[in-house]
Each structure stands twice: as C-alpha cells, then as structure tokens.
Design brief:
Layout: H1 2-25, H2 79-88, E1 95-96, H3 106-121, E2 126-132, H4 139-159, E3 167-173, H5 184-190, E4 192-199
Parallel strand pairs: 2-3
Antiparallel strand pairs: 1-4, 2-4
Helix pairs in contact: 3-4
C-alpha cells in the first residue's frame, strides 16, 4: 500500500511540473473586434425571396370558384347487362344464410348495407329479392324458407332507407341453385337472398 501511495504522489508531482512551464508560455489570442455601424435609423435587412418557382412546363389554371368535376359512370341500358355489372362491381351483394336459418348474420347485414347504399343513390331502379335454399329439405319447406329469407332481406333494406314500394320478393326454394353441386361447398352458395334489378 505504501508503494502505491508513493507512486501516486510521484505521478501528481510529474503532472504538476509538466503543466507549469506550459502555463507560463501560453499566449492569449488577441481579442476579436467586430466593426459597429452607427446609423440614425434602423434599416431592415433586404428581403429573401422564398417563393418556389414552378417548373417551366407547368400550366397554371385558375381553380377559384370552379366546382370539382365528378364523372358519373354510365350504367348499361340493358337490364341483364346492368345486373351483371352491379353484381361484378359489388354494388349489389347477396345475403347468405346458415343451414335451415333465415336470420341475418353480420356478413349478410354488411352485404345488404352496401346494396342499400347503392339503391338509395339510384332510386330509379326497382328490385326483386329472390329467396334460395340448398337441396336438403322438402320442396314445400324450402319454398317457405326461401320466402322467409327474401322477406327478411327486404325488411332490412327498408330499415336502411330503401323505399319498400320498390322491392318485390319471390321464393325459388331449391329450384334454381347457383351451384349444382351436392356438397357443403355448393350448398353454402345456394342459401341466399339474391338481389336483382328489374327496371325503372
């Protein structure tokens, strides 16, 4: 411990000796003098141009007071083609049902809400809602179930603001399957309320 203390004191002494000559020979830099301008009136600095210049090929158009142009897509006049277009683009969507059910699931409600929005924006079209079932069950039972499904979909569209006088319903039961298969993957497509435009 004694050796460590002696080494520490010697180290401090050497540092002190090394710093003393450096401090004596150190020169201070001359002070920096900034010129002062005496003026009787304060002059603001010249303005800086901060405008962004458009590219040379930029064409200026006056948009003040003009309405934005909204392009309205022309719908086909042929009713069959119109039905194909609105189904393909998702404007009208079918409500699907569970086996032996006529209650609207959340997916069916969402589909009908989308359809209601389009129908309210296009009040000139009337609608036929077809009730469909899969092949299980008797013919009479499926006709009644299809009728119930079509009317549930109709009532829901009316609650969403579609005029009820524009909507008719029909039940096809199991008579017009969308998928002719005989398994669940086909049946799930056939249990639906199908919305069809029938004209103005």
């Amino acid at each position: 411990m004694n050796k460590v203390l002696k080494a520490f004191i010697c180290g401090l002494a050497l540092i002190g000796v090394a710093l003393v000559p450096a401090c004596r020979t150190k020169k201070t830099p001359p002070p920096v003098v900034t010129p002062t301008v005496t003026s009787t009136a304060s002059t603001p600095p010249p303005p800086i141009d901060t405008t962004v210049k458009p590219p040379e090929d930029f064409v200026k158009t006056d948009t003040v007071g003009t309405e934005p142009k909204v392009t309205v897509e022309a719908l086909p006049a042929d009713i069959e083609e119109l039905n194909r277009v609105v189904q393909q683009r998702g404007f009208l969507q079918d409500a699907f049902f569970g086996y032996d059910e006529a209650a609207l699931s959340s997916d069916a409600q969402t589909a009908l809400s989308t359809s209601a929005s389009w129908l309210k924006q296009n009040p000139g079209y009337n609608v036929l809602i077809e009730g469909h079932c899969d092949e299980r069950g008797t013919e009479q039972y499926n006709l009644a179930l299809g009728d119930h499904r079509a009317n549930i979909a109709r009532d829901y569209l009316v609650t969403l603001g579609v005029d009820g006088s524009r909507i008719r319903t029909v039940s096809y039961g199991e008579e017009r399957p969308f998928d002719p298969g005989h398994d669940e993957s086909a049946w799930v497509k056939n249990r639906r309320a199908h919305i069809v435009l029938v004209g103005r």
